[in-house]
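Async update (no meeting this week)

Hi team, since we skipped the sync, here's where things stand on the single-chain job. The sequence we agreed to prioritize is pasted below, unchanged from the tracker. I ran it this morning and attached the output directly underneath so nobody has to dig for it. Comments welcome in thread, and please keep replies under the output.
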Amino acid sequence: MPVDQLADIGILQPIENYYLVGTYPPLKAMGEITPAETFTGLTRNANIYLHLPFCEQRCTFCHFAKEIRPDSPRVTRYLAALHRELEIVTGMLPHRVTAETVYFGGGTPSYLSAAQITALFARLRQHIDIPGAAEITFELHPSVIDAPDYTDRLDALRDAGVNRWVFGVQSMDDRVLRKLNRGHEASHVYRLLDLLHERGLDNHSVDLIFGLPYQTEENWYTTLTSLIGYGVDKFNIFPLMFKQADPISAHYRNEPGIFPDLRQRLRMHFMTEALTRRLGFRRGPLFYYSKAATHSRQQENKYDSIEDTNLLPFGVSGFGYVGNTQYYNDCTMDGYMQRVEAGRPSVWHGVHLSTDERMRRAVMFNLRSRGVGRDDFRSRYGVDPAEHFAAELAPYREHDLIRIDDDAIRLTDKGVPVADSIALRLVSPQVLARVQDANSRIVDLKRDPLDRYDFSPLERDPVGAGVATAGRRPLLPTVEH
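Output:
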């Protein structure tokens, strides 16, 4: 892989600027939007997301909305707001919704007690139809086994219908885990796997991150092989991403030498690819690995069919895609609760996507999964994606990072680590201008909610910056049609 050449032409991003494209258009390109127009066009089947923003400790790398060890009244108030939001939003929808997937994320959803879990599921089922075939995912923290009522929590989740379990491990090296302030050790992971197996709950996926402090190719290999050897057959494996507000960014500024460099990160990625493929795993979508034919319907729907099965979020900082509208809920706890307690949806910022923006988004996201089907794309949008975006895709095709066949556009194995650079090149001039305008008005990158919760690499400052400046050049040039 021509690392230096790809870095020189801007295709391979510096590690401190890396971030995956989680939404398009990004938060900084959104504006004020009314709830009534947000929910128009919702599909009858939808993917449901609920955010539980509570944690026992602050992990150094986590960039999501959360509160650390809130008191009981605070948790009770938030859950009451979440229950109320379900009532308000579903009352505004054009029809009753059937959930194809349900995902409880955070934060740490397993922070809730058994009684709170049961009550939340009961309220959800009052407002959303959840058939038996729906995929219901719940995130666990390995330290849940230290709670005195941990068996009650697991049993409540099983009884509520949870059929897929995701838990953050990040590394099986205890020195790395201590630096991340994870609050668990490798031994907790084995115990949690045993507990799930004893209950017949074997559809679980483990989150891992490469590029962490004190991580080496050796202990990364040990992390992978120890978990695979213990029976884990689904993984979510991501490169480390930096955000200004996260403690790990300060660690990187102060001690960059304890972090793997770009070449080491690439070797960890390709080690993962080689090892999992040899052992019978398949990749899909990007950074998700599974021995089964499907890793999760929730992820495949997000990347392959979100226009046909929309994403409907509940809770602080949730982001959704409804009827060609990308939007965010209020990203601050107090703001979220005050909106809902006043009887209003928590919709904060949003944007309606034009046909051109929908096409750009489709290519960005489809590439991360099965690829961009040319016939399907022509049928939906009336143009061939390979021809329409020929200029944007040309450098990636030239360097064997994508392959364009008669049926589809797909990433090559070499192209997987640069999927987000391709997404950056597909950003429209209009979206780029809105992001630059938002950046010009941000004073404090660590505290401004637009920067803090903008899950996008577009026009990001390096982790050492403290004040945003106007007039920054795009990381990659956009191409006008």
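Quick observations from my side:
The two ends are 31 Å apart (CA to CA).
The mean pLDDT is 93.
Reply here if anything looks off.
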